[in-house]
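Case study 2.
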Amino acid sequence: MITRPDGRPHPQLLPVENYLLNSNSNPDSRLEWVTGSVGARLIRRMAAGSLPVSLRAVAELRVTSATAYVAALLIESGAVPADDFSRVRFEAWLTGLLLSIPDTDDRPTVQQYASWVVKRRFADAGESTDPIQRLSRARRELIEIRRFLAATRVAGFTLEDIPQRLLDEYFVRRGDTAHQLVRFLRWARTQHLTQLRSEYRPQLQRGPSISDDQRWEWVRILLSREDISLAPRVVGLFALLFGVPVTRIVTLRRSAITVEGERVTISFGTDPVKLPPRLADLVRRVIEAPPRSPVSEDTWVFRGLRPGAHLANVSVSAALRPAGISVQQGRVVALMTLSRDLQPAIVADLIGVTADTAARWSTHTGGDWAPYPQLRGDAASY
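Prediction:
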């Protein structure tokens, strides 16, 4: 697979070969991947010299699961320097977007904003953010910026001299989609590129649209339904029981789980949580399950299909949606229940949110824990 036209192994692809040979995954799965997969054909193209051994080269190919898989394999094996492939893919996509902006005078502005603001958000997001969602948000924002700048030119104006009334009309016409312009317009104003003003709409505090009884019914479904994929079931249970965001659950590392005989604990935050027997059994099955990928490693509790990757948020939603389960709505109910029944500091330690976040949820749910520190101190004296 890594042999060059001269019959010698491609030196830059030797780490890929070593990674595959030393993987603890099923040998038959690895052989099947090497001999028949689209990803393996891409590696052969690299060995033949028709495709550079780089993340940028892979990012410029059509977006498929195979290209994402090969990028992950190159990174995990050490064949290329570690990098955020979603950011590299974004940079490749940005090149095409800039060329599609009708007025060439607008291109430097968009490029500057993308480089100074959007790319920085990739770096700040960290591993707890789903890379697919991160890339999708960046694309949607810049596409809306391109649309707005083009509409401004058609109206006979530039970003510098467009009247406020035209922006207001644009927001009315485009609806919620136009609010993706807000960050760009604020940035443009700080750079003295425009006089336009645009404010975030006030965020309405919405309660959940389901009851606590419905949440528990979903918990019972996930505990018993064997026709639902195991990993998404357990992710859903963690969200419904503890109020932890799916994005954080899928990025749990194997070290977050401790198994001692019949006792299984998990650490979302500072304090480990002992799992009830039925959930503990499901967690054991997750960590003992064979790898889903021919070259998977054991870094994550919930392993994804790509080398070194965790389970994707969208995979969880796709698995649970046919059963009528909305993890997001159920998670909000769980978090509200915890915040009402427990002191904010305990909630923060239990599920790994900040103390301020826990306090806000407690206030929202009507919890009154002002005397709690004194009560806890009194109890400690007995």
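The domain at 212-376 is CATH 1.10.443.10 (hpI Integrase; Chain A).
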